[in-house]
Amino acid sequence: MPVRPPRRATLDEVARLARVSPSTVSRVVRGSTPVSPELESAVREAIRVTGYVPNLAARQLVTSRSDAVGVVIPEDQWRVFRDPFFADMVEGVASQLAATNYRFILVVGRSAEDPEWLLHYVGGGHMDGVMLIAPERHHPLGDAIKSAGVPVVYMGKPFGAAGDATYVDADNAGGVRQAVEYLYAQGRRRIALIAGVPTMRSSVDRTAGYRSGMAGVGLPVDERLVLATDYGDEAGEKAMNQLLRLGEDVGVVDAVIAASDLIAMGVLRALRNAGICVPADIAVIGFGDERIAARSEPPLTSIAHNATQMGIELARLMVAVLEGQPHAGRFIMPPRLVVRATA
Q1: What's the pTM?
Q2: Is position 162 within any domain?
Q3: Which residue from 83, 86, 318, 330 has the fewest beta carbons nearer than 10 Å?
Q4: Could you tell me if 184 and 271 lie in one domain?
């Protein structure tokens, strides 16, 4: 009969025996955040009794380092694997880390459905740091990971961020303001916004940029022309059809700013199905300037923010934090309007 390997004690078992939280056990094992002598003594004794050994290689046992960082995207897998922003961003992370001793672990979706699983994984020493991508408002994951003694760098300025938060973001508000000013200079006066998920920082900032841009050119905001949705093409098509149904109640919409290029793809499809000419009847501007923008029909005018470069900067800041700069700062990607055939 095959010999079964001995069962390994778990971090949770150590925590129960020591009567502390799993994150306290993690802090003691990693030596990342000081705990009281009493708690450390209790944890060390529980480790001795249970025979607990972190699931790390020999070097990791000595250094309490895994040389791995996490790219955690708390989003539905369906959206992540369809949205080109995430692919380009991860490509940037991979290219930056290739020249370092760090590898990365990609976690998608499950952290949102089962945050305890991720916290236990991180707390077990499998990740030296976490790059948390676009957490929504009130999402507890960032604070929970930091409470486990693991540093976090954010993609997207976190809500309620302290002055020492480290993050990468696009100038979302500035980009949409630039789009409004461009459309106004082209003679457009009924400018609609199809925004993203209202609990996400990017959507909040892009909506704020739309409002400030409209005020800056002296146009009132008609709230019926500001629609929240997700970042997908089907949602964009549905939202555009909703705008078209408004009809003469609000006059003819003559321009649409979409909060992502995928939304813009749906907008173009709805306009094509309705027999509306772009840009003669309605101009369309997307956000992101992903690869699909230049390939759309007609080619999409878009606000570029270079997701690959943002991924590079995200990984650079993560390494800086791990190498001794606990408050490594932040990087804001300036926007650039790429004019093509739709506006």
Answers
A1: 0.79
A2: yes
A3: 330
A4: yes
